[in-house]
């Protein structure tokens, strides 16, 4: 029974070895397994033959099986001794697990180092433990320069670390994002979005971080914010400019009535009387009011400019005398001129602009100093410019003050300042086709550059022809202001004109349709119904030879593009001498007057 069960066991072992050998065709030493299986099988057959020999004499077969077993066993023994060193070299499961871990770490390391996205790891206290090649390429460092250093060494000052809330999220295993800045090896600042996650816990806790370069996006956002701020500023300036122009228009109409009435009073009051003196004071105040509207329109870039050729050398010499008297002895005024330098600008407005700049400079030099004015030729954009610089040795401005120096109503003079001086200078410069540049450093003074178009010197004026004959004729006066109709009409009647008044364009057209021949049509521009320009056009259809004078409080000259040809424009408020000169120019011309 023992031989039977031993033989049965020996028979199952080769089967198991055969299955193993067939399932693992990759084994390099599979023939040895087959030899061992054969040896075990022969041993098992030997035990079964012993059992059989109890009843059947099979000694011959037993001998052959034993011989075969001996041959196979000897071969297997030799093969096993030959195979033993190789078997001993096979790794243990622990070594295999360590090798697997080393392989995984190697692959992770390779993936980390060669990642196209910049990666880095750091401890919670901010020490860099590793960086990828793309991180090094982005920031321009070598690996040995950064690993082991505090991350703060590679960031600008005042870059905030992870907040307490972010640290709590990181410790809980959640990813966190933070916008940070890094210093490039060449000193540039790189804006980056850092996403971090906790890699390990315990003493070797590390943060694995992904860095995305957002410098271009930040610059684009900054440029967009700047553009939006400039747009809002331009819209604000446009809105305030429209308001200022509208107020100036209405004020000009009011001043026209005031000036006209005061001139009539001056005519009726005896010279030297109290009434004459009071009327003169009121007329001077009205003139100052007119100057105020000019300032408002200058700020709104819609003032009425009368450009002339200005030779800057004598002009600035006169300005020097004016400034010496205005600023006082504690300020030294120097002027340097470029020979034969001329510009095209309104002389009165240029004088006002320079005076504004000089007064600002004097305010910055309360204990005295030097105000240097210089005219020189400059070139920009392929064009020649006459640049008038006004430089002082005063307190100067910081960057924040300089950035809003030309903003309307911004002032550093407290209640004594209006905040319109520099904005009016800038408005005058831009309306004259030039620009204003300001340069200033705190404690080092301010330099204002007024750039104006450069022109050739003006030709010498022709001798004026004196016209002595009296002007007269029939005038159609049209204005929607009863005060203007009264004062202007009364003056024209005193001057010898026959005046027909109309309070609207439609009524004036009705008078023209009656067949009355008028020599001059004097009309306001902005009226209900038919405006002045349309009225002139309709009047010339009825009377082609009629001459026209447009009187208006509007400062925006864009409407003059739509005026009929030959229309002369006179801006309110005007004095009667201005009106007389305009009428003389119209009536004494043999041709249609030119605007």
Short summary of the structure?
With 595 residues, this protein is an alpha/beta fold. Helices cover 49% and strands 19% of the residues.
How would you characterize the overall build of this protein?
By secondary structure, the chain is an alpha/beta fold. The protein is built from 17 helices and 17 strands. It has helices at 2-23, 30-52, 59-89, 93-113, 133-139, 143-146, 164-171, 215-268, 274-299, 312-327, 347-363, 399-403, 421-431, 482-494, 505-513, 532-542, 576-587; strands at 119-122, 128-131, 176-183, 189-198, 207-213, 308-311, 331-336, 342-345, 369-380, 383-392, 435-440, 446-455, 473-478, 497-502, 520-524, 547-552, 568-571. Strands 6, 7, 8, 9, 10, 11 and 12 form a 7-stranded mixed sheet that branches. The chain has a 5-stranded antiparallel sheet with strand order 2-1-5-4-3, with helices on both faces. It has a 5-stranded parallel sheet with strand order 14-13-15-16-17, with helices on both faces. A hairpin with a 5-residue loop joins strand 11 and strand 12 (446-455). Helix 8 packs antiparallel against helix 9 (274-299) and helix 11 (347-363) packs antiparallel against helix 13 (421-431). The longest helix has 54 residues, at 215-268. The protein starts with a helix and ends in an 8-residue tail after the last helix. 27% of the residues are buried. The model is unreliable at 461-469 and 590-595 (pLDDT under 50).
Query: What is the general shape?
Result: elongated
Characterize the main sheet: 7 strands, mixed
CA-to-CA gap between the ends? 141 Å
Mean pLDDT, to the nearest integer, reads: 82
* Class per helix and strand makeup: alpha/beta
Strand residue content: 15-25%
Cα-atom radius of gyration: 51 Å
Helix content: 40-55%
Q: Number of helical runs?
A: 17
Number of strands: 17
Ranges where pLDDT stays below 50 over 5 or more residues in a row are 461-469, 590-595
